[in-house]
């Protein structure tokens, strides 16, 4: 978590006004902790202050004003996003010096703007942070003038990686950049239709430059692999594309329609030699390819780690969307009343066990994943600094490989669960959740892209299982101890001892017990998957075919339980080390952690029984007594924790909720006046009281009845 070392609410009192009085007052009074203190634990004083600065600016600027019922055409949304981007640039809310001194400044900025508009922050991130970072990766510093122009809104950048036929398999990308020693330039070509660059954000209508990933060829016809190039694509004054390039907009999408994704092809398009972006490789004037990094594994590991930054931020996108959806659904559920005891008052729907069971486990997940992102982001910063400084003795390759493994599975798991969270929250709000003014539709549609871009989730799980199998294979074949820079796999070194453990049927009642079970699960599935891989390789005679035949129920499941263990383990480490918080806060955080652990591991009970880690009770009643055992205990604990956390649920979402003008939901406003706010959305909806012009076409030939 982003927790500060000093928990003093007075430090941020001016940034955290009390919520407006209203129907939610009763629920806020039930909380066992101070929501402002919980927010300080979650984020720390710096993050709270920086978010408040950003949100205050957005609130005071008319171009950022929005209503839950607003509707826009695609062109209107693009125009508004572009205008808002210009204002963000003018505000200069970030600077390189501050970003370096405060590592969490960038993710805070991303989250604060993302909760307002994902189209806006994705456009901003692609055209500034990602593009500028790619330009700065060039060791020569020759792009400094362009960077200044981009930062001053005199140009916009795009990243162009994916092609029509290939996304995840970057090795198979076909766009070529061939060096011509005579003209000292690279010649770009799109060799076939399948090599058309697609999905490049900002490229469709507005980018002036693009960082293009292409296969570098020298004049002798040798391909030296995928490299990045800084390519001018449009005139920065007229925005006309240059000869030799064809660029088009990809049109309407399911969501993120404020972002102009584009496609692009090249036909003998020439760019100067200086277009090559690289810290470690170059082409001489004579056309000879040179690289400072001779170790191929180091180059690959380092590159994988840097490319993980996109997945890292998608993890944050997912966590943020979970928090927004849960804020709306839980506030609504605390006020909405339906049915009740005979001759009694209707009760809030959150008092129903089913509503608690549907929502509160996701609330627990959001806290655990919030902590995972914060912890993992620190690891990424450590890796990035190590790569830049290149401290002797630092294994950059190993660090990059672990970052890649965790970002791959983390991106997959968080985006999947965030998708489920949004949908469950939408359904928990009934018909009103279907209104655009509820905001679930926009959250769901904008989030949907996270599930697929930066790698298909099921493919990404393979990256993580490959990483685990590699370590285990080395241990089996050489006896080499299993150690990783950030420690995520270290426990596997004790695989024999872990596999010898068996559980009593009442042991899964605290976080430590759940962690022990998860370690066993990972080790069991790792050994099982490795054995099946060996058998399939022997049977099929091909390692690729063997991996393909070992994915479902083996390698895929291995990656899933590995992430769930890692997320809970990082959360437990936080609880252990963060012991100066008020005891009432620690108690609630422990409840959330245990609920996440039980809710997650319940899905894997069949494997725990199959493996022998759990055993069925020796005798079970066939009479009127309840059958007892681990599944029953876990289910009862889950329901009890949901009930225990119910009265704290409003305060918990208050601790991560943005202000109303950012949340922008008629169902989730902080005053809790859901019916006033819903009716306001109804009467202000576009055309609410208009008679449509097309109605005349239906009535013009209709004769009135006598």
Task: Report on the architecture of this protein.
With 706 residues, the chain is α+β, with helices and mostly antiparallel strands. It has 2 domains: 141 residues, Beta Barrel (Butyryl-CoA Dehydrogenase, subunit A, domain 2), CATH 2.40.110.10; 389 residues, Up-down Bundle (Butyryl-CoA Dehydrogenase, subunit A, domain 3), CATH 1.20.140. The chain is built from 23 helices and 14 strands. Strands 1, 2, 3, 5, 6, 9 and 10 form a 7-stranded mixed β-sheet that branches. A 3-stranded antiparallel β-sheet has the order 4-8-7. It has a two-stranded antiparallel ribbon with strand order 11-12. The protein starts with 24 loop residues before the first helix and ends in a 7-residue tail after the last helix. The relative contact order is 0.11. About 2% of the residues have low confidence.
Which residue ranges are poorly predicted, with pLDDT under 50 across at least 5 consecutive positions? 299-305, 621-627
CATH topology of the largest domain: Butyryl-CoA Dehydrogenase, subunit A, domain 3
* Helix content estimate: 40-55%
**Proportion of residues in β-strands:** 5-15%
Global shape = globular
Number of strands: 14
- The CATH homologous superfamily of the largest domain corresponds to Butyryl-CoA Dehydrogenase, subunit A, domain 3
Distance between the termini: 74 Å
Rg over CA atoms: 27 Å
Number of helices: 23
Largest sheet: 7 strands, mixed
Query: Which structural class best describes the helix and strand composition?
Result: alpha+beta
What is the residue-averaged pLDDT?
90
* CATH architecture descriptor of the largest domain: Up-down Bundle
CATH secondary-structure class of the largest domain:
Mainly Alpha
Number of discrete domains = 2
């Amino acid at each position: 978590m982003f927790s500060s070392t000093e928990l003093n609410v007075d430090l941020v009192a001016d940034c955290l006004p009390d919520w407006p009085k209203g129907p939610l007052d009763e629920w806020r009074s039930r909380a066992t902790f101070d929501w402002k203190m919980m927010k300080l634990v979650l984020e720390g004083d710096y993050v709270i202050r920086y978010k408040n600065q950003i949100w205050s600016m957005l609130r005071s600027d008319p171009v950022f004003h929005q209503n839950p019922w607003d509707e826009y055409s695609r062109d209107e949304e693009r125009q508004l996003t572009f205008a808002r981007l210009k204002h963000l640039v003018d505000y200069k809310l970030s600077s390189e010096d501050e970003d370096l001194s405060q590592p969490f400044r960038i993710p805070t900025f991303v989250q604060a703007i993302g909760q307002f508009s994902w189209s806006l922050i994705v456009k901003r991130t692609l055209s500034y942070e990602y593009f500028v970072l790619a330009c700065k990766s060039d060791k020569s510093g020759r792009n400094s003038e362009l960077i200044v122009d981009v930062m001053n809104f005199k140009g916009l950048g795009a990243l162009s990686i994916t092609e029509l036929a290939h996304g995840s398999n970057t090795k198979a990308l076909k766009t070529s950049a061939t060096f011509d020693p005579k003209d000292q330039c690279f010649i770009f070509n799109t060799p076939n239709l399948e090599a058309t660059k697609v999905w490049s954000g900002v490229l469709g209508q507005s980018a002036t430059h693009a960082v293009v990933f292409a296969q570098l060829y020298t004049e002798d016809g040798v391909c030296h692999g995928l490299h990045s190039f800084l390519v001018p694509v449009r005139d920065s004054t007229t925005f006309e594309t240059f000869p030799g390039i064809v660029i088009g907009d990809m049109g309407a999408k399911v969501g993120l329609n404020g972002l102009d994704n584009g496609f692009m092809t090249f036909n003998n398009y020439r760019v100067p030699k200086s277009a090559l972006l690289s810290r470690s490789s170059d082409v001489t004037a004579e056309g000879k390819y040179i690289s400072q990094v001779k170790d191929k594994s180091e180059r690959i590991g380092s590159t994988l780690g840097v490319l993980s930054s996109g997945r890292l931020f998608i993890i944050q996108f997912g966590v943020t969307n979970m928090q927004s959806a849960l804020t709306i659904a839980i506030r609504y559920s605390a006020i909405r009343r339906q049915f009740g005891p005979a001759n009694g008052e209707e009760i809030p729907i959150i008092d129903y066990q089913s509503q608690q069971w549907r929502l509160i486990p996701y609330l627990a997940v959001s806290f655990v994943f919030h902590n995972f992102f914060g912890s993992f982001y620190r690891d990424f910063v450590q890796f990035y600094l190590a790569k830049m400084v290149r401290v002797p003795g630092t294994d950059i390759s190993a660090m990059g490989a672990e970052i890649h493994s965790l970002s791959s599975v983390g991106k997959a798991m968080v985006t999947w669960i965030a998708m489920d969270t949004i949908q469950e929250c939408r359904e928990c709000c009934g018909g009103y959740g279907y209104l655009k003014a509820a905001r679930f539709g926009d959250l769901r549609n904008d989030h949907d892209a996270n599930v697929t871009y930066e790698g298909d989730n099921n493919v990404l799980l393979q990256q993580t299982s490959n990483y685990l199998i590699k370590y285990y294979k080395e241990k089996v074949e050489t006896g080499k101890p299993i150690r990783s820079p950030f420690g995520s796999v270290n426990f596997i070194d004790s695989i024999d001892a872990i596999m010898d453990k068996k559980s009593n049927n009442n042991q899964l009642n605290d976080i430590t017990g759940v962690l022990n079970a998860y370690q066993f699960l990972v080790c069991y599935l790792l050994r099982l998957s490795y054995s099946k891989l060996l058998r399939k390789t022997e049977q099929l005679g091909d390692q690729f075919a063997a991996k393909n035949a070992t994915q479902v129920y083996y390698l895929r499941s291995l990656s899933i339980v590995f992430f769930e263990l890692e997320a809970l383990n990082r959360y437990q480490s936080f609880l252990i080390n963060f012991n100066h918080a008020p005891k009432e806060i620690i108690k609630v955080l422990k409840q959330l952690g245990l609920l996440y652990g039980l809710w997650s591991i319940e899905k894997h009970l069949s494997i725990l029984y199959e493996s022998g880690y759990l055993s069925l009770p020796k005798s079970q009643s066939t009479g009127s007594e309840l059958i007892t055992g681990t599944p029953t205990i876990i289910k009862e604990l889950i329901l009890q924790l949901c009930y225990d956390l119910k009265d704290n649920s409003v305060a918990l979402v208050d601790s991560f909720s943005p202000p109303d003008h950012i949340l922008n939901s008629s169902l989730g406003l902080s005053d809790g006046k859901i019916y006033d706010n819903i009716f306001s959305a109804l009467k202000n909806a576009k055309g609410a009281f208009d008679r449509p012009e097309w109605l005349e076409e239906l009535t013009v030939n209709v004769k009135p009845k006598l």
